[in-house]
Amino acid sequence: MIANGPEAPFALARYRDGEEVRLGLVAGNRIRPLDEEDLGAADLNGFLAAGDWDRLERLVDADGPWRPLAEVTLTAPVEPRHVLQAGANYRTHVIQLIMAGIAKADRDVPRDELRARAEAAMDARAASGRAIIFLGLPGVVVGDDEPLVLPDYSDEHDWELELAAVVGREAFRVSPEDALAHVAGYTIVNDITTRDRVFPGGAGEIGADWFRSKNAPGFLPTGPFLVPARFLDPSDARVVLELNGEVMQDATTAELIYDVAAIISDASQTTRLFPGDLILTGSPAGNGQHWGRFLKDGDVMTGRITMLGEQVVRCVAETRS
């Protein structure tokens, strides 16, 4: 159970109420249910499309059916139609990846030259003006109330903590200058990846297999809170992941090659983004592949992002009957 809400003055969450999932308003260590009258909309995504956060803010200090946050079981705070994921989007992370690739092909290259070549390649990609964007399956989105089941077909399941933007007003072919006006809020996502399925044997130069490497059940732990966009500066948010209490990732979004506005604008040139859609912004350096250590049965990942609270994911090995 989660005892405290995010650092933001208030946020949205979804929680289990018997067999149903209800939408709630979180303020501090309290939560209250929200109905259509409270939202001014029929459901969560309808509310995000309208973006009237002021009506919820007025409820923060109002009497009502508040209860301790620790008494409820939270689940994923969003119901996206689309999940778009930006890859290789943190400067230090990308440099590490490129250096490793060059060194694998030629072990005699001096480290200073490796870094210089990696930085030049990274800068060239950044100058192209196009982020690497691929798709995840909405059905993979879960709350951290569910354990992460590690499929038994691999021992290389990896973590990637990310800041995720949640779309408010529909966006189609929007400019970078207007893109943030289409963001309703932000949440935490851990984009789990099976490394040995990214580049399957025999694929040659065909490309990466993002479907098989990223879309096992529960591979997108999300939330537990959806924080209004007004409370977070997406250009300077700290992203920290601990594995069993040891810090593995620690960076800020100031390192992003393509910022939130650029990713949303770029994606919207191709497809419509709908209320509730998740836009992942990439993960910083420090994943398991870098450390030479992948997820195992019993591992506990704790992710924190500025203003968004804490996400705890517990790993269990797959068992087949």
From TrEMBL:
Stored Gene3D superfamilies: Fumarylacetoacetase-like, C-terminal domain
InterPro entries linked: FAH (IPR051121), Fumarylacetoacetase-like_C (IPR011234), Fumarylacetoacetase_C_sf (IPR036663)
Pfam families reported in the protein's UniProt record: FAA_hydrolase
Span of domain Fumarylacetoacetase-like C-terminal: 85-312
Molecular function via GO: hydrolase activity; metal ion binding
SUPFAM superfamilies: FAH
Keywords for this protein: Hydrolase, Metal-binding
GO biological process: small molecule metabolic process
Protein family per UniProt: Belongs to the FAH family.
Name of the protein in its database record: Fumarylacetoacetate hydrolase family protein
